[in-house]
Amino acid sequence: MITEEEQNQLRRLFDGHYSQDVLNILNHQNITNRNGEPHSSQYVRMVFQGVRQNADIEKAIWQLADKRKYGLEWHETRKKRLFYNIN
């Protein structure tokens, strides 16, 4: 389960846009609900908020967080490298 503190940190990292990306991760891994259908955005949000529990969706949320954090760090490194080379 994602704790409230983790939710707050993830919200800042995701900037409010995450459910479609989580669904893309789930679809890429062929993870479906018990009826064999893709999960809904609403269900992903409920897992994120702690209303429902689903280990596969939580794992996808953490994968997305790792991907977003890496992307932000990459951009910061690139900016620093660019400005360092100018001076």
Overall, the morphology is elongated
Count of helical segments? Answer: 4
Uncertain segments are: none
Mean pLDDT: 92
Helix fraction by DSSP (H/I, runs of at least 4): over 70%
Radius of gyration: 16 Å
Strand count, sense and closure of the main sheet?
none
End-to-end Cα distance, whole Å, is 47 Å
Number of strands: 0
Order of helices and strands: HHHH
**Beta-strand level of the residues, as a percent range?**
under 5%
Task: Output the structural class.
Answer: mainly alpha
Q: What does this protein structure show overall?
A:
Helix 2 crosses helix 4. The N and C termini lie far apart (47 Å). The mean pLDDT is 92. Helix content is 71%, strand content 0%. It is built from four helices and no strands. The longest helix has 32 residues. With 87 residues, the protein is mainly alpha-helical. The protein is elongated and about 55 Å long.
